[in-house]
Amino acid sequence: MAFVSQAGPAYRVHSEITRSTNGRYGVFGLTNNIEVSRMKDSSASFSSSSYYSTKKSRILNLDGAGVGIQRGYRAIVAASPPTEDAVIATEPLTKEDLVKYLASGCKPKEKWRIGTEHEKFGFEFGTLRPMKYEQIAELLNSIAERFDWEKIMEHEYIIGLKQGQQSISLEPGGQFELSGAPLETLHQTCAEVNSHLYQLPEIAVDLHYLFYRMVKAVAEEMGIGFLGIGFQPKWGIKDIPVMPKGRYEIMKNYMPKVGTLGLDMMFRTCTVQVNLDFSSEADMIRKFRAGLALQPIATALFANSPFTEGKPNGYLSMRSQIWTDTDNNRAGMLPFVFDDSFGFEQYVDYALDVPMYFVYRKKKYIDCSGMSFRDFLVGKLPSLPGELPTLNDWENHLTTIFPEVRLKRYLEMRGADGGPWRRLCALPAFWVGILYDEVSLQNVLDITADWTAEERQMLRNKVPKTGLKTPFRDGLLEHVAQDVLKLAKDGLERRGYKESGFLNAVAEVVRTGVTPAEKLLEMYDGKWAQSVDPVFEELLY
What we know:
Layout: E1 16-19, E2 25-28, E3 59-61, E4 69-71, E5 74-76, H1 95-103, E6 114-124, H2 133-147, E7 150-154, E8 157-163, E9 166-170, E10 176-179, H3 186-194, H4 207-221, E11 224-227, H5 246-258, H6 262-268, E12 271-276, H7 281-301, E13 307-308, E14 311-312, H8 318-322, E15 331-332, H9 344-352, E16 358-361, E17 364-367, H10 373-377, H11 391-398, E18 402-403, E19 405-407, E20 411-417, H12 421-424, H13 426-435, H14 438-448, H15 453-466, E21 471-472, E22 475-476, H16 477-495, H17 504-512, H18 516-525, H19 535-538
Parallel strand pairs: 3-7, 15-18
Antiparallel strand pairs: 1-2, 4-5, 6-10, 6-11, 6-12, 7-8, 8-9, 9-10, 12-20, 13-14, 16-17, 19-20, 21-22
């Protein structure tokens, strides 16, 4: 849920020349924090400090942000924190500008990359209690100082870290999220995922790999562990710390007005998602439809949140269930994506009608909850009368929309629970095998072509409880999953990178029809003697 995107290799402007350990230089000048320089070779040579490696810990403040592709009187902004001054809009934005912003994500196949984002719960060894903000701040500061990550600050609070194209951010309840660098192959992605357990700076390995090594090395010294699960298994909302981020305060106050489970979503869920590219509007549409149709299968395959406050909660994916009553104005299965008229413009129309959360101005989050971006476009936003939005405002608004598949300048597959490191490689493998192979993608579209909106919604509603055993037409969802997994495997094999082995973790789930959550429940009723405490060891990073 973090407001972080992966729009490509962009670097903030500093008044300095930095040199990375692999010998590449980036030259930066004093230009009001506008991004004017991009390093080359964005997906190659992911060594231990390939990006931004200097001897001091630099600080990023949220009152400045990067601006990317210049477009006359304004610019298309690269992914950045909220800012009030990224762009001076001398002319009003139009809907056409918003459509072009999405379309600017189109890229040729040779430039397609794989992005992953995954969240995890930090907890104290011994008490198993969630990390307090003070512990989180100590951990982030230690990582920044020891391993040369940039600090992201909101006022006096450290709220994240950044190094090159990857970042660490905090979810509302202190969940750690890594947004990894966009990578070319699953081998790079899996090396990222497996790396974050210990930091070994002298070894040239990929960035996710370094992250886990790095975080675990510091966290274990503090008596802190990380749990890979989709929903907080032991503690209630009252036990969860609130992060000092202005946007989350706005969301916390708004959520109870639009659903009954929004605070649970904010403070007690973790997910893993995959971000993938498209070549054209037509390619985006095909991938969007396939992603939505198959999202319940992904939810079932990775279902991993069966406990609430120490007991089984009746669901295999409580995280997925929570989204059904969080805020239905900004979540769900988006049936209009299957309309013949769908394209970038129709998604813009949808997003314009999703109520806003905030606008960031003068180092403050302005509460705009429930207000209309359409009104903002014409200077009639009640909280900021007469003020017009920038494209940075639009980008930030897009990140506050939470459907099962989300469109930004790439597509985000958002249906999976958080899980242990051994399964994180399987999710990008599943989606890459289907969406990055033309034959498999077309086969999926053929299989799902006659699925009705009602059937897709039925699967989305029932899978959190019944998983792969959900009845579908003349059989069970697991029978469809078997066919889909075969398509994913075939797609990976046609890519030619020997990546199909990354599907092994879900192949067993499909073969047996038993989800990860059901295995946890079996242990809970068996060797765990109806205690959830052992899950903190079972799913420890």
